[in-house]
Amino acid sequence: MKIGAPEEIYSGESRVAMTPDSALQLQKLGHECFIQSGAGIKAGFTDAAYTAAGVTVIEGAEALFDAVDFVVKVRPPEEAELSRLKAGQTLISFFYPAQSPEMLEKAKATGANVIAMDMVPRISRAQKMDALSSMANIAGYRAVIEAGNNFGRFFTGQVTAAGKVPPAKVLIVGAGVAGLAAIGASTSLGAITMAFDVRPEVAEQIESMGASFVYLDFEEAQTDGAATGGYAAPSSPEFREAQLKKFRELAPEVDIVITTALIPGRDAPVLWTKDMVEMMKRGSVIVDLAAERGGNCELTVKDERIVTENGVTILGYTDLPSRMATQSSTLYSTNIRHMLADLTPEKDGVINHNMEDDVIRGATVVHQGEITFPPPPPKVK
Ligand code: NAD
């Protein structure tokens, strides 16, 4: 099959869905690879590097869409991109079908198939295709780098001839994929790192990474996320009160807060309130990774960097993976390549869009002119 990646058109997006390395692997599966001229440049991959990897470089998005059977992309398609899709083609990209029912209808009208990378079931077998986790890992790491860039002090403590420097205190709220990556980056820079999650089972992971788990003074067990397949469920009002009380105690002493708390299918819970921001020291930094879904901090403005009257910087950036475009393109294109490997079981360039396969079925949101979202629950763990 012919597989091609166009340039991303979303403003400020620097990632690309195919790298020269991923193209070499796709060719081993029997596919031919195509790239729109310049599509990889912001991620550090030149047209010449693609050509050297056996990829055909095509001028312009229209010609690229016309040339291929499979279009691979990062961002959900925009209308201009959907209008270029034709019946029988397949698009693989992030799509967020639950949030964009209109785009799902428009995609269906094209007659093309759509595989949504955000819908890959989170089962062990599909981890190699789990692009949400790949990107969350990068976002968590980058959140710490952004915090450091906006913080006027070291992370680590030092005793120098010019004086003693205390270590920074970092609080990570939410210890899923992004939160754990942030913990790793923060502890490796030498900060005193604390983390909180409503799922008590993550305490061990937090502690094994050199951070301390923030325990609440709360009679009932913390919400057990197991009932929702490893994700969090909304907390009871009493639990939430206990959580906010603990955060109010911590607010005057922490230097950096990185929030990553999300509950599937809901707006982000507000956990870092205005009065907590007001209690923080001048020069403190908050990085809100939940900004896309409304933010965990009450004062976050999506995609903005704001500085409050009391000198606290709040970052609501939603493009953290794109800020590390080489790394994120490398991991994302590998996730895509694994998806295509499962779609090419005989490694002979022949696609078998097998709707009996849990992973392929779960990720397919439009198939042969029908909307196939939401999928049935996966049979395998
Ligand atoms: P997520 O992005 O949905 O949420 C981030 C974190 O926020 C979660 O840990 C959640 O418990 C936490 N949270 C929610 N409400 C909170 C609150 N009020 N206060 C504090 N924290 C709160 O989660 P995610 O990063 O996608 O990962 C969720 C789980 O899925 C993790 O256990 C992860 O290890 C697991 N996972 C499994 C697979 C797999 O098996 N293939 C892949 C990825 C993730």
Automatic annotation (TrEMBL):
It catalyses: NAD(+) + NADPH + H(+)(in) = NADH + NADP(+) + H(+)(out). It is an enzyme of class 7 (translocase). Its main location: membrane. The keyword Cell cycle does not apply. Its EC number is 7.1.1.1. The keyword Transmembrane helix applies. It comes from the Bacteria. It is a multi-pass membrane protein. Keywords: Cell inner membrane, Cell membrane, Membrane, NAD, NADP, Nucleotide-binding, Oxidoreductase, Translocase, Transmembrane, Transmembrane helix. Residues 148-316 form the Alanine dehydrogenase/pyridine nucleotide transhydrogenase NAD(H)-binding domain. Residues 4-139 form the Alanine dehydrogenase/pyridine nucleotide transhydrogenase N-terminal domain. One of its GO terms (molecular function) is oxidoreductase activity. It is found in: Cell inner membrane. Belongs to the AlaDH/PNT family. The transhydrogenation between NADH and NADP is coupled to respiration and ATP hydrolysis and functions as a proton pump across the membrane. This is NAD(P) transhydrogenase subunit alpha.
